[in-house]
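Budget justification, computational time. The allocation requested in the original proposal was used primarily to generate C-alpha cells for proteins on the priority list. As evidence of use, we reproduce two of the resulting records. The first is shown immediately below.
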Amino acid sequence: MAVQFEQIIEDNKSSILRICKIYAVSPNEPEDLFQEVIYQIWRSLDKFQGNSSVGTWVYRIALNVCIRSKMKQSKDAEKVSLNAVSFSLAAETDTSDDEKYRLLKQCISQLNEADQSLIILYLEALPYAEMAAVLGITENHVAVKMKRIRKKLFDCMTQMN
C-alpha cells in the first residue's frame, strides 16, 4: 500500500499543488493545504472503491480540503470583522448592555417570522444541523439565511445607534 500511495502522490502532485495555489490566500498556505490533502488521501486510501479514476478521486479530495479551508477562513474572517465592528461601535457610543439588548430585540422584531425563528435558534447556540432539522430546511440553507440575517441585524443596529 505504501508504494501505491507514493505513486498516487507522484502522479498527481502537480494537480494537487495547482488546486492548493488557487485556493490559497497567504503565501505559505499552499504548502499547508498540500500537506492536508496528502494526509486526507493517505487516510482515505483504503476507502477508495475505484468508481472513478484515481486522478478524479484525488481531485475531489483536494477540492474538498481546499473548499473547507476557505469556508473556515471566511467564517473566521467574518467573526473577526463583526467582532471588530461591534467593538468599535461599543467604544464609540459607549452603549450600555441593556441598551444593546433592547436594540437587538427591536431589530429582531423587524425580521419576518421565519428569520426571527432562525435567529432565536442561533442565539440558543444550536448547531446548524439542529436548526435545519427544527425548521425543515437544509443545513446549507440555514447557513445562507444566517449570513443574511446577521447582516440585516448589523445594519439595523448600526442605523439605530
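The second record produced under the same allocation is shown here.
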Amino acid sequence: MKHAAEKVVSAYATLDTPLGALLLGGDGSDVLLIGFPEGPNAVSPREGWVYDPGLYREARRQLADSFTGRRHGFDFPMRMIGTAFQKMVWEALLAIPFGVTRTYGAIAAEIGRPSAVRAVGAANGANPLPIVVPCHRLVSSTGGLIKFGGGLAAKRFLLDLENQARTS
C-alpha cells in the first residue's frame, strides 16, 4: 500500500487517458485516490473495492479535459488523506501555477521548513491525487526530472502537455 487513501477506498472507476487507464478510487462520493497503471506507484484494485463505471463522472470529465489542454485546474469532489505535513506539502503543490515547475527545496522553503527537502520528496511521493495535486511539477535542484509515481515518461508527458497548452 503506497497511499494512506487506499485503506479508505471502497469503490472505483477508470478513465482511459494517453497515460493508460487511470484508476479513480474513493468512498462513492469523494475521489480519494488517482492511480497510474504503471510506474513505481501503480495502483490496481484491491480486494473489497467495487467497480462502478458510473462513479466520479465529474472527476473523469475534468481529467479528460485536462488531457486535451482545455482544463488547468480541478474542482470535483475530492479529499486528501495524509498527515498534517503531507497536506501542507500538497497545498503548496496546488499553488504552483499551471505550466511552471518548482524544486523540492523551493517547496520546503515555502512551507517554512527549508531543511526538510527529503521530507518534501517523501510527501510528494505519497500524494494520493496526482495530476490534480500537481506533483509532476516538482523537479530536482538542477531542473532535471526525478521520481514520479506514474514513471518518468508520464511526468514528461504531463509537463509537455502543460507547456503546450500554456503557449498555445
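A brief technical remark on that second record: The first strand starts at residue 11 and ends at 17.
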